[in-house]
Amino acid sequence: MSTLHFVALIPFIAAIFIPLVYHKFRHIHTGWFILPIPLVLFVYLISYLPTSDAPMATVKNSVPWVPSLDIHYTVFLDGLSLLFALLITGIGTLVVLYSIYYIANKKDEPLNNFYVYLLMFMGAMLGVVLSDNLIVIYVFWEVTSLSSSLLIGYWFHKEKSRYGAQKSLLITVTGGFAMLSGFTLLYVMTGTFSISEIIALGDVIVASPLFIPAMILILLGAFTKSAQFPFHIWLPDAMEAPTPVSAYLHSATMVKAGIYLVARLTPVFGGQAEWFWIITSFGLFTLLWGSISAVRQKDLKGILAFSTVSQLGLIMSLLGLGSAAFHYDVVDGQSVYTVAILAAVFHLVNHATFKGSLFMIVGIIDHETGTRDIRKLGGLMSIMPITFTISLIGIASMAGLPPFNGFLSKEMFFTGALNSTTIDVFNVQTLGFIFPIVAWVASVFTFVYCMIMLFRTFTGKHQPEKLEKEAHEAPMGLLISPIVLGSLVVVFGFFPNLLAYTIINPAMQAILPGLLEPGEQFYVNIYHWHGLNPELFMTMGVIFFGAFIFLNARKWQETAFYLKERDPLNTIYDNGLVGLIKGSTAVNDVQMTGRLRDYFSFMFVFLILIMGYMLWKTNAIAIDLANTAHISPYMYLISLSLVIATLAVPFVAKRISAIILVGVIGFLIALLFAVFRAPDLALTQLLVETVIVVLFLLVFYHLPELKKESFKPAFRISNFLISIGVGLVVTLTALSAHAFSHENPISPISDYFVENAYALAGGQNIVNVILVDFRGLDTLLEVLVLGIVGLGVVVLIKYKATKGEDI
Amino acid sequence: MRNTPVQLHVITRIVAFIILAFSVFLFFAGHNNPGGGFIGGLMTASALILLYLSFDLKTIKRVIPFNYSKVIASGLLLAIVTGIIGMFFGFPYLKQFFDYFQVPILGEIELTTALPFDLGIYLVVVGFTLLVILTIAEDDS
User: Fold this and answer.
1) Which chain B residues are closer than 8 Å to A690 by Cβ?
2) Which residues have a Cβ under 8 Å from the Cβ of A87 and sit 6 or more positions away?
3) A673 to chain B, minimum CA–CA distance in Å?
4) Number of independent structural domains in chain A
5) Least CB-CB distance to A793: which of B30, B42, B132?
6) Region A228-249: what's the mean pLDDT?
7) Which residue has the higher pLDDT, A537 or A288?
8) Which residues 16-55 of chain B have a CB within 8 Å of chain A?
9) Which of A592, A614, A632 is the last residue of a domain?
10) Interchain CB contact of A783 with B (< 8 Å)
11) If you compute the radius of gyration of chain B from its CA atoms, what whole number of angstroms results?
12) Is the residue at A461 inside a domain?
C-alpha cells in the first residue's frame, strides 16, 4: 500500500468517526473537523504537479484485492486523474467551508449524516479517478451514485427530495449496471481489467465483434452519470439537495465522472467512427437541449441545473471531436483536432470554477432572501454588492465574455466545431456543417439564460413583500468560497498559461497517448486575441442575437414554451415508474398467492421441467441395478412404513392425527439415517422433529377445524400429476446417477473430505469438519439466514398489520 | 395448587438438566464424534423448551432472563469475528487453525479455532429456536 492508496481511503476511514465526533462535540459544527481532510489531500496531490517543462511522471502502484478474478486495487496517477483529483479535493475544501455556514448547527439537524455521505462521496470519487482497475472503478462509481442519492434526499421529509433521490439513483445505477456489463465484455476481449493493459490491446478490441456492444454499454454508464440527453432528467430534480451538494456533486465533480470515463477510454475506442458520431452528436444535442431548457426555468437553481447539463454536453462533444485526432498525424504537438481535447480539458476546469461559484451564490441568495424564484427576486445589486460582483464574474464567464476564462474555452470550442467541417473521415463531410451551427445556436441560448440570471436577480425593482426574509449581504464565511472560485475565474482568464503545462498538457497526454514522439509535448498556448477570425465573429453574433432575444423577453415569455418549464421527457420516466410498479404488482399477485400449496407446485413444476429436460436432452436416463448394495429386511420394513404413513396423511380427517402422522414420517426418516450410519443426520432429524412437534402444539390452538375441501377435478388431476412427476424425476435421476457412476470422470469431493479432514482440520467427524471448516462460509451464511428468519417471525407476529393496513 | 402437575415438575427439573448436560457434551464432542454446534444447540433448545412447557412462561422467564434476539446477534458476531481473526495474519477469511496442547489432568487436548465458530452457530440455533417458539407462544391474539 502506497500513500496514494490511502488518498481514496482516508475519507472513508474518517467517515467512521464522524458520528462519534458529532455527538461528542455537539456545540462545534462538525464541518470544522472535516475541513482538514480535503485540504490536506489537495496539498498532497499538488506535490505531484510537474514543476518544469519535463513531462509528468505517471505513478502506478498495485495491491492485490481478488487476484483470482484479476481484481487489484491499482492506483494510477497521470495528468487526467491528477486534474480530477485536484478538482475533487480543491472544490471539496471550499464546499465543506461553505457548508459550515450554509447548514446551521441546529438541534435537530443531522449533520453527522450529511458529512458521512459527503466523505463517502469524496472517497468514492477519488477512487474512481485514481484506479486503474475497471472493477474497482465500478465499485467506487456505484458508491458515488449511492452517496449522491443520499445527499439529494438529505432533507428526506420533503416529498420532492425523495423523488429526486429515487430518480437519480434509478437512472445512474441502471447506467452503472450497463457499464459493468461493458467492462465485462472488455475483459472477455482482452483478458484483463487493467485500463493501461486494455489500452495496449486496442487492436484486439477494435477487431472484436463485441466492440460495439461494449462501447454502447460503457457509454450508457457515462451518459447517465454525466446527464447527457435523454438521461439528463435526473439532474434538475437533484437540485433538491442542499446547495453545497449541488455545487460539489452536481456541477463540479460527480457529473464529470462520465466525462472522465470517456476521456480515459478515448485511447481504446477513439479513432472509431461510432465513437466519434455517438459522443459528438449526443454531446451537441445535450448542449442545445440544456441551453434551451435553461431559458425556461424560473428557479435559479433550475437554470444552473440545465446550464450544467448543457455545459457537460459541450465538454462531451469536444471529447468526441477530439477523438478524430487518432486519424491524423500530430505535427509539433499540434493538430486541428487536439485543439478540441485541449478545449475540453480547459473548459472542464473553467466550468468547475465559474459554475461552482454560481451555485454558491445562488445558495447565498436563497439563504438571505428565502427564495430562488426569479419572479420574486430583483434589485439585489445595491443590497448584496459582493454577491453581485462575484455573480457578474461567474455569469460573464459562463456566457463566454472576455476577459474571463469562459471566453477562452468558448472560443476554442468554436474552433473545434469549425475544424470538424474539415474532417474527411467517418463521412463527416455530409453532416459536419451542422456542428458549428448547433454550437452557435446553443451559445446564443446560453447567453440568454445568463442575462436572465443576472438581470432578473440583481436589477429591476426590489420586491421585499414577496421575500420571506429581509434581504441583506451574506456573512463573510459564506462568501469566502465563492470569492476564491470567482478570483480563479479572473486569474485563469488573464493568465491561462498558468495551467497550460502544469495540468492541461499532462491531461492531454493521458487522453491522447501514443500520438507524440517520446519527449515531445502538446503545444498549449492560450491567448485572447486571435485576430478577426470566424470564432470572434461567432462570439459577436452570440452577443448580438442573445441580447436581442433577451430584450424581447416580454413577447416570448407569454408563450406556452416559457410557461411549461418541466422537461417533457419526465413524463416518460414518471409513466415508466408507474408502469413498473403496476407490472411488478401484477406479477407478484400471480406468484405470491399466500398459499403454501401453490408455492410447492411452482417449485416442483420447475424442478420437473428443468431436471426432466436435462435428462431427456443429454440422454442420461439409464437403469442399471447390477451393482446395488444388499438391502436388509428391516430397511424394507422402515421404507414400507414410511410409504404407508405418507399415503395416509391426505386421508386423515382430524388435524391432530395428521400432525402425528407427519411426526411419524420424520422419526422414520431419522431411523433410516441411523440405519445408513449417518448419526449426525439422525440426531439432527430427531431433534428437529421434537422441536417441530412443540411448534405444532403451539399453533394448533390457532388453527381452524380441518374441513373436507371440495376441489375441481382439474385441480386434483394437476396436483396428482405434479406429485407423480416429482417422484418419477427424482427416482430416475438417482438411478441414472448410479448407473453412470463408473463413467464419471470427476472424483467425488467427499473423497477429498474423507482423506483430509483429520490432516487439515484435526477432526475425525467429517460432517462437523465440513460444517465448521471446509465450508465454514456456507454455515455462516446459513445461520445468518436463520437469524433473519427469526427476526422476521418476531416482526410478523409482534408488529402484525391490522386489517387493511398497507405495509 | 390443585392443578399443579407435581410429577411433571419434578421429572422435568431432573431431565432438563440431564439433556442440558448432554447437549454440552454433544457440542464439544462435535469435532471427532457425532455432535457439534448445530446439534448441541438444538438439544439445548429442546431442554429449555421442555422447561417452558412444563412450567409456565413467566416463571421460566424470570429464571432464564435471556433476550434471545441478542443471543442470535452475539452468536453471529462471534462466528464472524472468529473468521476475521485469521485475516490479520494474512490468511483467507474463516481459515481455521488447530493444535494439540498438554494440559495437566486432562492430558493432551486439541484446541481449535473452529470451536468458537461452532459456539457462534450453537448460540444462533438456540436463540432462533427459542425466539420463534416463544414469540408464537406469547401471541394470544
Assistant:
1) 46
2) A252, A253, A256, A348, A349, A352
3) 13
4) 2
5) B132
6) 89
7) A288
8) 26, 30-39, 42-43, 45-46, 49, 53
9) A592
10) yes
11) 18
12) yes
Element (H, E) at A77: strand A71-77
A800 touches chain B (CB under 8 A): yes
8 A C-beta contact, residue A433 and residue A420: no
- Digit-coded pLDDT (tens) for A123-134: 999 999 999 999
Task: Please tell me the predicted confidence (pLDDT) of residue A118.
Answer: 92
**Domain enclosing residue A767, as ranges:** 750-807
User: Which of residues 71 through 110 in chain B touch A, CB cutoff 8 A?
Assistant: 72-73, 75-76, 79-80, 83, 93-94, 96, 98-99, 110
Residue A33 to residue A570: CA distance in whole angstroms: 40
Q: Pairing relation of β-strands A59-66 and B107-112?
A: unpaired
Nearest CA to A280 out of A252, A313, A325 is that of A313
CB atoms inside a 10 Å sphere around CB A479: 21
Of the pLDDT bands very low, low, confident and very high (cuts 50, 70, 90), residue A216 is: very high
Confidence category of residue A641, pLDDT binned at 50, 70, 90: very high
- Which of B12, B23, B32, B71 best probes binding to A when mutated, by most A CB atoms within 10 angstroms? B32
For residue A350, being part of any structural domain is answered with yes
Nearest to A134 by CA among A246, A17, A268, A287: A268
Q: What local confidence, expressed as pLDDT, does residue A328 receive?
A: 66
pLDDT of residue A426: 64
Task: Say whether residue A770 is in contact with chain B using an 8 A CB cutoff.
Answer: no
pTM: 0.79
| Interchain proximity B135–A794, CB inside 8 Å | yes
Query: In this predicted model, what pLDDT tens digit does every residue of B28-47 receive, in sequence order?
Result: 887 788 888 889 999 999 99
% residues pLDDT > 90 (chain A): 27
Three-state DSSP class for residue A299:
strand
Answer whether the bond into residue A403 is a cis peptide, omega within 30°: yes
Q: What per-residue confidence (pLDDT) applies to A519?
A: 62
- % residues pLDDT > 70 (chain B): 96
Question: What is the rounded average pLDDT of the residues A714-731?
Answer: 90
Residues in A closer than 8 angstroms to B79, CB to CB, are: 779-780, 783
Residue A800 Cα, gap to closest chain B Cα (Å) = 10
Inter-chain CB proximity B93 and A761 less than 8 Å: no
Distance CA A634, CA A638 (A): 6
Q: What is the pLDDT of residues A663-706, one digit of tens each?
A: 899 999 999 999 888 888 898 899 998 888 888 877 877 777 77
CB-CB under 8 Å, B45 with A763 = no
A493 is a domain residue: yes
Answer whether residue A99 is part of any domain.
no
Q: Which of A696, A772, A788 to mutate to test the interface with B (most CBs of B within 10 A)?
A: A772
Residue range B119-132, pLDDT digits in tens:
999 999 999 999 98
* Reported ipTM: 0.89
Residue A803's pLDDT is: 59
Q: Is A784 on the interface with B (CB under 8 A)?
A: yes
Does A698 lie at the interface with B, CB-CB under 8 angstroms? yes
Q: Give A372-407 pLDDT, tens digit per residue.
A: 888 888 788 888 888 889 999 999 998 888 788 888
* Residues contacting A92, CB < 8 A, separation 6+: A38, A42, A122, A248, A253
Which residues on chain B are in Cβ contact (under 8 Å) with A779? Answer: 79, 121
| Residues A426 and A554 sit within 8 Å (Cβ to Cβ) | no
Cβ–Cβ below 8 Å for B114 and A784: no
Domain end point (choices A562, A592, A622): A592
**Maximum Cα–Cα distance for chain A, whole Å?**
107
pLDDT (average), residues B9-33: 89
Q: Tell me what pLDDT residue A789 has.
A: 92
- Grid cell of A472 as nine digits: 441583506
Alpha carbon distance A63, A75 (integer Å):
8
